[in-house]
Automatic annotation (TrEMBL):
Keyword check for Nucleus: no
Gene Ontology biological process terms in this record: putrescine biosynthetic process from arginine, via ornithine
UniProt record similarity statement: Belongs to the Orn/Lys/Arg decarboxylase class-II family.
GO cellular component: cytoplasm
Protein name: ornithine decarboxylase
Molecular function (Gene Ontology), one example: ornithine decarboxylase activity
Cofactors demanded by this protein: pyridoxal 5'-phosphate
N6-(pyridoxal phosphate)lysine found at: 51
Superkingdom assignment: Bacteria
Catalytic residue positions: 328
Amino acid sequence: MTERIREFLRVRRERGIDEGPVLVVDLEVVRDNYTAFAKALPDTRVFYAVKANPAPEVLSLLAGLGSCFDTASVAEIEMALAAGATPDRISYGNTIKKERDIARAFALGIRLFAVDCKAEVEKIARVAPGSRVFCRILSDCVGAEWPLSRKFGCEPGMAVDVLEHGLKLGLEPYGVSFHVGSQQRNQHAWDRALASAAAVFRECGERGMNLSMVNLGGGFPTKYLKNVPTVKTYGNAIFKALRKHFGNRIPETIIEPGRGMVGNAGIIETEVVLVSKKSEEDDVRWVYLDIGKFGGLAETMDESIRYPIRTTRDGDAMTPCVLAGPTCDSADVLYEKTPYPLPVSLEIGDKLLIEGTGAYTTTYSAVAFNGFEPLKSYHI
C-alpha cells in the first residue's frame, strides 16, 4: 500500500463514492519497476508484456521511458502504437496468429514475429515477407508458482528446422525465445533454458544461420505472501548464465516483464457481502466478496496465486475462512483447499484490500457475467 493509493481511497470514502470493487494502480511504482529492470540488465531491451495490464496510462508511461512492447494481438499492437511506441519497438510475440492478423501487423510496420512451428512460418512468409522470426522453445518451468503448459514452444531440436524453413522462405531467422514460467521465484531457472538456447544457436550456425537474439521471456515475480528475489538478483544470475553458455559472444537479449512490472503497483478494494457457515459445527467460515474469479481474480485458480489481504480489523483473533465471489457459479471460489486466515470480527460491509493485483486482474475481468460490471480501475 503506497501513500498515494491510501490517500486516493481515503478521499473516495470521505466523498461516499462506492462503485463496487475497484483496482487502484500507482504509476510511480511502475516507473520504479521499469528503472529497476533497465538497471539490472543494462544491455537488455525491456519489452513490457502488454497483456499484464494494457491500461493507456501504463503504456504511455512506459513508452515515454523508452520501453518496448510484447504484444499478443493486433489490438495490443494498436494500443502500443497509440501510447507512442514506434513499430520497431513492438514484437508480435504470440505463436498462434491468424494470417490476416499477421498481414495487419505487417501493414502497421511490425517486423518481429514469434513462431514455434513450420506452419506459422509459412503464414508469415506469405503476408509479412522479409520479417524477422524468433522460435520459441519449451521450458520445464520448475520453480514457477504459475507454470506454463506445452501450449507454446517446440523442442529445441525442432526449432532449428523451423528457423531454417523460414530462411528458405525469405524470412530472417533472428533468434530464440523461452519462458521459464510465471511468478518464477528461482533466479537460476534461466540457466537451463539458456543452455538449450545456446545449443540452438550452435546448430543454426552449423547450418549457415547466424542468430542474433535471445528472448529471455517473462516470469519475473511480484511479491505476494512470500518474499521474492530482487530484480538485481535476477539480472546477476541471468548475466552469469549468458556468460556460461555463450562465452564472450553474448547475443542481443530482450526481456518481457509483465507481472514483475505492474503487479505490486496495484491494490483492489473489495467489500464483504456475506459471512456464513455451512453447519453449526463448522470451524471454517465462508466469506463472500463483491469480487471473485470472474471479476478479475482468475489467477486464484487452483490457488496458484495467494494474494495478501488486509482488513481494517487486522490484529483481532483470526479464524480460517473460505473466500468466494458473488456470482451464481460454484467455480467462483477462491481459497477452499487452503482456507485463508481472517479476523473473527469481520462483518458484512467491511472493506478488504487485496494487494499485488496490478497485473492480470482487469484483463481477466468478465464483461458482464451475471450482470456484474467489469472491474473498474484507476491509475494515479
